[in-house]
Amino acid sequence: MKSKKHLLSFVVSGLLLITATAWVSSSKDNLTANFAKPAPKAPKVQRLLYVATPGVRNYLGYGGHGIQVFDMDNNHKFVKYIKTTGFSKSGKPSNVKGVDVSISLNCIYISTLEAVQCVDITTEKVLWEKQYEGGVDRISVSPDGKIIYMPSLEKEFWTVVDAKTGDVIKKIVTNSGSHNTIYGPDGNYVYLAGLKSNMLNVADTKTHTVTKQVGPFGADIRPFTINGSQTLVYVNVNGLLGFEIGDLVTGKFLHRVVVEGWNIGEVKRHGCPSHGIGMTPDEKEIWLCDGANYRLHVFDNTVMPPVQKTTIALKDTPGWITFSLDGKYAYPSTGDVIDVKTRKIVASLEDQNHNDVQSEKMVEIHFVNGKAVAAGDQFGIGQVKKASKN
């Protein structure tokens, strides 16, 4: 009886030893396999800044004619020049009025006084160029990259266009001196500002009709920006060194914010003391152009109305301001590259011949393995999608 028990105990012990050995061996193999096959690295993102010129009127001395491309992760060094079209009837390069990107169509669009050109991002070839009734001002492309809203050149209407073909879909008549245009981040609304109106028109993108107005503001609207949740609009207006704020939901005027400690003075261009306003992507600050004093004024936007914080000196008169997608850099039209956190100028945009590049029309594009995967915006739009509690 004892020998049977001993035999049974010996068999059970053997089975346990085999099982444990197999488990240890299997675990060891798994560990070896895991060490042998490290997790694949995320593909490197290349961030480039595309600057369309002549982007300050038709001044060829600020970068010539074409697209100048800069490496945002290498001290904004010049990368390449892309040849573009966009000539006036006299054969001279026409003023660039706007720039925007369709990631889905792999195209960058440049509007000039007379026309819009569609350039393939990969091949850098002009796919089409079309002139439009009334000329073209600062365009805006839908988030899905399929539709372009084109303001006529300070005339009565906007033209809605198919981004792939350039074919006209519809005309929206506002009689407001069409000028600046922002396609909302949610794709449902487009914000239409005219040089001859103190009301901001809001168009529904399903019907391409104006369904709301915001204002009235203190004077005719110049550049403007919006927050990511599309509840607030911050506008420059004629005659004001500062900005005003409107409620995009109720349509009401909210606040007028005046720059303190600086005189309005004479400005080189645009005839407007503050021509250019942008919001940091985190929406904590408003950056405002001061054309007479060659300055940017920074405001705390965590309180309402925003409060003036500091001022940054620039090398020339600013007429526009936007930001990198990550919020690290601010890009005034002067070609200065500013570190947002330190307020210091860390680089200056220069072409291959070390000539100064300035433009009010620039956009950031991200690439992975040579393919465009994301783009910024030209308006310094906020990136916080939830409504503010202010």
Automatic annotation (TrEMBL):
<dbReference type="InterPro" id="IPR015943">
    <property type="entry name" value="WD40/YVTN_repeat-like_dom_sf"/>
</dbReference>
<protein>
    <recommendedName>
        <fullName>YncE family protein</fullName>
    </recommendedName>
</protein>
<dbReference type="InterPro" id="IPR011044">
    <property type="entry name" value="Quino_amine_DH_bsu"/>
</dbReference>
<dbReference type="InterPro" id="IPR051200">
    <property type="entry name" value="Host-pathogen_enzymatic-act"/>
</dbReference>
<keyword id="KW-0732">Signal</keyword>
<feature type="signal peptide">
    <location>
        <begin position="1"/>
        <end position="24"/>
    </location>
</feature>
